[in-house]
Amino acid sequence: MILACKNINKAFGTAEILKSVSFHVNEKEKAAIVGINGAGKSTLLKIIMKELPADDGEVILAKGSTIGYLAQHQNLSTDNSILDEMMTVKQDVIDLDSNIRSLEHDMKHAEGPKLEQMLNTYTRLVHEFEIKNGYAYQSEVTGILKGLGFFEEEFGKKVNTLSGGQKTRIALGKLLLSKPDIILLDEPTNHLDLISIAWLETFLLNYNGAVIVVAHDRYFLDKVVSKVVELDNSKCQSFEGNYSAYVQKKSMLENAMLKQFLNQQQEIKHQEEVITKLRSFNREKSIKRAESREKMLEKIERVDRPVDHTQIHFQLEPRIMSGNDVLTVTELAKNYDQLTLFTNLSFDIKRGERVAIIGNNGTGKTTILKIINGQTDADAGQIRLGAKVNIGYYDQEHQVLDPEKTLFDELQDAYPNLDNTAIRNILAAFLFTEDDVFKRIKDISGGERGRVSLAKLMLSEANLLILDEPTNHLDITSKEILENAINHYSGTVLYVSHDRYFINKTATRILDLTGQSLLNYIGNYDYYLEKKPEVEAAYLGKAATSTSIPTGRPGAFPTPTASLGNAYTDNKANQTYTQPVGNEGDNKQNWQQQKEEQARIRKRKSDLNKAEDEISQLEVRNEEINDLLTKEEVFTNAAKLLELNNEKKKLEARLEGLMEQWELLAAEET
Predict the structure, then answer these.
(1) 480/238 Cα distance (integer angstroms)
(2) Mean per-residue pLDDT for 567-582?
């Protein structure tokens, strides 16, 4: 074990964020911390790093271990170039190299004992240099920079001139280069393209240390981690396995907890009915029995109903259906100054397709969406919309929101036919709950405004949704809700995303913008990965023997990609499994068991009803005897008095037996 958290508690005011949080991480183990936004993931990382004090509990770090941390937001401020800033991590190696070179120079002019002393020092420094990988440190720095998406021609750029996302990548590179025993990463994939994320996955998998990561990138978590630490309702629970294994185990656990809750509720209801019935008999013993059951009921430790974060959902439905040909793009080209983004792009989209455009940062994916939506002009080519196509466009930089309105009013004014519950449900799906809905647009962050815009778009009844990075700023639960809505949408969807799990769940086709052209894959992200080498080899082969560039139209590739015209059906995420029905003997035995069980239930109900009827009849007779015993003609008649007393004793005994029988039969219901 290299790190352990024991009974960590943290509250901000009256809000309890972490309660008795305990988990451990072993050497070289890769672990994820997951939970909805606000669950305390980043807070926990800061407590581990001692940037925040815990209210109670302790963080234990193995003796002599080093730890490194990448926060979500970096504030690198330096005039260093990208390369020089990265080299600061290797300053000790650079100093060693300088000392070795200096010694080499001095030894040329030394002799005798002094030379021998210098040789000893030289041997020691060279050994240390080798241990610190000194001969390869420059290529190591270059490899990490390239892996994180920087080109060599960018290495000389000043860090102060970079964007926030680029600075975060530099901070990540420095952390990876420093090689601590434990790496803590808070949303490391936010500013990386698909190639860089894949590189980071490989790096972390092979990293000779422990990793704790907070990320909403589920595909990344599936590839990297072998343990998931979940924060839910301030509490902590650990699951062995990757993210998909966690989801499966969590689902099984929630189902078991729900079953336990429902069974207990059924038992409580049954006991309350028994108590009511016992009191209705209005006898001293039956009332005592009822009181005894009430005390037992009060002592039961009530099971809370498990919180189901996926209960909130919404339905996307276009107001009118478009024609079958939704969008046709022909010979599209776009340049910025001397930079050619793409040329000769052609593709079409049919009704009902969900098409993802993927590619490296800066290749022009968002530009394609803007051209289709009329926000940017193409240099060449044609965009043609099909019959009755109504576009709903999501680009958080260009959404019109009234800064003075509350979130609730923004949606209600746009869609006055929606009731309060519907508006609250969709806002909750995008993480706005309780009093959050009454915040003004001007008072929320840019990411939150993006979520409001996305919520607004989801209600637009458009039949062609064009989405630019729709899962940014969403937590995992909200992504799952959005995935479900898109998968059940009867319209057409075209989107740009770097969220591979989202693409895998929703895309029916992928257009890969690479080499200024589009490569077409009819399938999800797993299918794309499987066919990518084959398609790119065919593309390169054709490009080498032809002056034309592949258009990106389905079926426009040589033989290796022709099979892509067939829909991919071997997708594990969408497979349906059925249980075998069993042989005839098994079915007959099951049928016989069900028949016997139904007969037993009918008999129990019949016996229960008979007991209740007889109890009622005996109670009536008991009251009649009590009345008779008060009459003068009876209590003055010794023979009659004895007869009624004997009857009453038998009746009481019978009632006692029936009460016990009734309680036993009633108990069988549970």
Answers:
(1) 21
(2) 36
Please report the sign of the dihedral spanned by the C-alpha atoms of residue 123, residue 127, residue 129, residue 133.
Answer: positive
Q: Quick one: pLDDT at residue 588?
A: 62
Task: Specify whether the CB–CB gap between 210 and 30 falls below 8 A.
Answer: yes
| Pairwise pLDDT comparison (546 vs 311), residue with the higher score | 311
* pTM (two decimals): 0.68
Residue type, 548: S
Structure tokens at 230: 């979940």
- Quote the CA–CA distance of 521 and 355 in Å, as a whole number: 10
- Number of CB atoms found within 10 A of residue 577's CB: 4
Strands across the sheet containing 3-12: 15-25, 3-12, 56-61
CB atoms within 10 A of CB 216: 24
C-alpha 231/C-alpha 222 separation (Å) is 18
- Cβ(489)–Cβ(316) below 8 Å: yes
How are beta strands 325-336 and 339-350 bridged, if at all?
Answer: antiparallel
Q: How far is CA 525 from the centre of its chain?
A: 18
- Among residues 476, 6, 475, which one has the least CA distance to residue 236? 6
Instruction: Give the β-pairing of 15-25 and 3-12.
Output: antiparallel
> DSSP E strands: which ranges in 488-565?
492-496, 509-514, 517-521
